[in-house]
Every structure is written in C-alpha cells, then in structure tokens.
Backbone:
C-alpha cells in the first residue's frame, strides 16, 4: 500500500487526475462524482465526449451501489471473472459522471486483479472512473518516465510498494444490459 493516501485523496478531491498501474495497462482515474474532474480528464486525453469512462471497483458492494437491473447471467460471469481484466456494462444509477456532460444510462464496471490497486481504491473510498493513460488514439503508456514526458505535472503518479507487471492487453468489454451478454471488445479475458 502507498503511504501518502491523504495526499492522493486531497488531490482527487481538488478535481485532480491520478495515474497508476493496473493488471492490464496504466490508467488515469478521477472522482466520478466530480464533473469538473471528469472534464479535466477528457481534455487531458483529447478524448471524445461521447466515449464514456468506466468505474474501477474494489468490491461487489461498490458495483451494486452504482448499478441496477443486473441480469442473473451477469452474476455468474462476475463470480467467474472478478477480480480480472474484464469490464461489464450495466444500467447506471445515474450517480456518476462517465462523460463530461452527462452521467449516462449505463456504466462499465471492473474489479482489477491487483491487490495493491484494490487497497488503494478502498482507501480512497470514492468512485474512481478510469481510462487508459495515453492521448486518445495513441499508444498506451507503461512507465512513469513516459507519463512524465507527455503529461508532466498534469497528473499525480501513484507508485505501489512492489513492481507491477501489466499484461499490456486491455480488458474485455461485455454489455450485460440485454437478455444475453454481448462482447464489445475482445481483450485479456475470453468468455
């Protein structure tokens, strides 16, 4: 676990963007309850305002707080694949800003398979919406030096106690808002 959690939380509560390694690729995260922070992240990445962020969760309880109408088959998929490199899309409770101008009717959720990151998310105890650490459409970043080169002081990089090995493969994305799951992006996990 990182020792300066209060610094991280203060940064996030002041509309800040954090960067951290995950089990897949390096990510950017902001407080999903903070519209300005979400807008800051979209501007930093030059991301289309029509492409939503997803929620990184540390527990099933957190998923249930921000989603509703989860179909029965999705519970089986979550039990099988969480924690892991898979993102499920459910109907949103409308509490979280997934885009700068709207909260969105749906939201992607993921529990990463990385204990250090789960501990960080639990310590922050805010809904952290996430995307890959890069300029939209450009290659993913994997090292702190790359991050500093492109984003300098725009983000707070969080290093974990142990070196994290990332798979370099983005998460699989599965839409679970219908009667059957629909794979929107093939990624690290096969279902």
Residues:
């Amino acid at each position: 676990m990182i020792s300066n959690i209060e610094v991280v939380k203060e940064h996030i509560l002041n509309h800040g963007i954090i960067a951290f390694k995950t089990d897949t690729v390096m990510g950017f995260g902001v407080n999903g309850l903070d519209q300005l922070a979400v807008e800051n992240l979209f501007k930093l990445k030059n991301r289309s305002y029509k492409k939503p962020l997803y929620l990184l969760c540390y527990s099933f309880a957190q998923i249930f707080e921000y989603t509703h109408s989860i179909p029965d088959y999705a519970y089986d998929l979550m039990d099988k694949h969480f924690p892991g490199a898979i993102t499920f899309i459910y109907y949103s409770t409308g509490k979280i800003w997934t885009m700068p101008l709207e909260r969105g009717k749906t939201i992607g959720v993921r529990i990463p398979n990385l204990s250090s990151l789960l501990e960080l998310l639990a310590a922050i105890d805010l809904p952290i919406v996430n995307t890959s650490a890069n300029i939209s459409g450009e290659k993913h970043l994997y090292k702190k030096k790359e991050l500093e080169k492109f984003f300098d002081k725009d983000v707070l990089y969080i290093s974990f106690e142990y070196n994290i090995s990332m798979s370099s493969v983005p998460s699989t994305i599965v839409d679970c808002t219908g009667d059957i799951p629909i794979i929107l992006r093939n990624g690290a996990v096969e279902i």
